[in-house]
């Protein structure tokens, strides 16, 4: 059986980059032919300064958001990373199989550490914990956005090293990154960059919990260029192309079909059409999140059930690893 694993950090709210790049694909991968694991990776989100008081609420908000987007806890194992201790245990073992230069080279580390005076060790170890996430479930498919590719290559190389040293244990997973522009949704205010939680201009990112007014405002303020025509050209016209990409993913029409439909409009008028499509798509999701946030007991129960299922598999892999590396497994 195919095994799907992916994770998301509970930092802030789920935004449209997360939605189009990853979560909408996670939803489609849920069916009986696959075992599916989706983890809220709280231990990853403490690698940079954060507010401990907000983390618990953010975990519940992320749980509610994923369910509202269509993750079905009956079909998918939805769980909190820190509740399965084998993630950190395996990450220690994997850390012993790589080198400091290999980790220091990774683009995400370089980018995040560039602005810090003192770089926390956790930020450096981040991709090892990510590798442990995937390998613990022997995942064969990992659906993510483009920014995760290098981290997953490290996971592959750790799996190969482990297999070589201790015998065949981990499969080399397939990284599912869409070839269309959904794997890198751009920042609306700065379309040379990806939409992200950390960009200083908050108007560049639309959160799944944004109100219709917020959405309209942010789309109106989206940076385009001095051409007023609607054309799809991600390399030369990243601003308007990002709007077209999102519109296309919602409507099922190709970006070219949308350009043809709106060829009489300028970018200013077209923005109103995109905003309306986004509002229509995300209003029911937002309402569902609000409803779910009223039942924190239900959300905690989902995570508890997920923990039980995830832990069974994680423990089994951990015991296999522990005996292969020569430590004595604790039964
Ligand atoms: P995170 O929390 O930053 O993002 C979650 C998912 O959303 C995707 N994504 C995007 N896709 C397209 N355009 C964007 N602008 C955009 N922004 C974010 C990310 O690629 C990701 O798929 N390190 C991971 C979390 C993680 C993980 C894992 C992922 C931990 N362990 C194991 C896969 C497998 C992260 O920070 O994702």
Helices and strands, with pairings:
Elements (H helix, E strand, L loop, with lengths): L1 E7 L7 H13 L5 E7 L11 H18 L6 E5 L5 H10 L4 H5 L2 H8 L6 H16 L4 E3 L5 H18 L7 E3 L35 H9 L17 H14 L3 H7 L5 H27 L2 H29 L7
Parallel strand pairs: 1-2, 2-3, 4-5
Helix pairs in contact: 2-11, 3-6, 3-12, 6-7, 8-11, 9-11
The site of tryptophanyl-5'AMP (TYM) has 26 residues, from β1, α1 and α6.
Describe what is shown at a glance.
The chain is mostly helical and 331 residues long. The protein is built from twelve helices and five strands.
Provide an overview of this structure.
The chain is mostly helical and 331 residues long. The chain is globular. The protein starts with a strand and ends in a 7-residue tail after the last helix. The strands form 2 sheets. A 3-stranded parallel sheet has the order 1-2-3. The protein has helices spanning 16-28, 52-69, 86-95, 100-104, 107-114, 121-136, 149-166, 212-220, 238-251, 255-261, 267-293, 296-324; strands spanning 2-8, 34-40, 76-80, 141-143, 174-176. β2, α2 (52-69) and β3 (76-80) form a beta-alpha-beta unit. The structure holds tryptophanyl-5'AMP (TYM). Tryptophanyl-5'AMP is lined by residues 5-9, 17-18, 21-22, 41, 44, 130, 133-134, 142, 144-145, 147-148, 151, 183-185, 194-196.
């Amino acid at each position: 059986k195919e095994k799907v694993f992916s994770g998301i950090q509970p930092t802030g709210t789920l935004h449209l980059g997360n939605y189009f790049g990853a979560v909408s694909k996670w939803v489609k991968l849920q069916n009986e032919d696959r075992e599916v694991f989706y983890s809220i990776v709280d231990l990853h989100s403490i690698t940079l300064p954060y507010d401990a008081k907000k983390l618990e609420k953010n975990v519940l908000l992320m749980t509610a958001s994923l369910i509202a987007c269509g993750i079905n806890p009956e079909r998918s194992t939805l769980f909190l990373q820190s509740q399965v201790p084998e993630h950190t245990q395996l990450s220690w073992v994997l850390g012993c199989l790589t080198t400091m230069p290999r980790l220091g080279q990774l683009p995400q580390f370089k980018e995040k550490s560039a602005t810090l005076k003192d770089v926390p060790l956790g930020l450096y170890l981040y991709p090892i914990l990510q590798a442990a996430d995937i390998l613990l479930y022997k995942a064969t498919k990992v659906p993510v956005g483009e920014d995760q590719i290098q981290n997953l290559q490290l996971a592959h190389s750790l799996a190969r090293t482990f297999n070589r040293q201790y015998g065949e244990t981990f499969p080399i997973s397939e990284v599912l990154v869409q070839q269309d522009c959904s794997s890198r949704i751009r920042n609306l205010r700065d379309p040379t960059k990806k939409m992200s939680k950390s960009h200083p201009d908050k108007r560049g990112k639309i959160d799944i919990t944004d109100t219709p007014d917020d959405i309209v405002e942010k789309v109106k303020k989206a940076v385009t260029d001095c051409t007023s025509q609607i054309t799809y050209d991600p390399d030369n016209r990243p601003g308007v192309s990002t709007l077209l990409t999102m519109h296309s993913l919602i409507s099922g029409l190709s970006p070219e079909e949308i350009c043809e439909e709106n060829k009489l409009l300028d970018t200013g008028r077209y923005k109103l059409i995109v905003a309306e499509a986004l509002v229509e798509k995300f209003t029911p999701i937002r309402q569902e999140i609000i409803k779910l946030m009223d039942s924190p007991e239900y959300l905690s129960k989902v995570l508890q059930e997920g923990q039980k299922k995830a832990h069974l598999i994680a423990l089994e892999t951990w015991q296999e690893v522990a005996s292969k590396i020569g430590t004595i497994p604790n039964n």
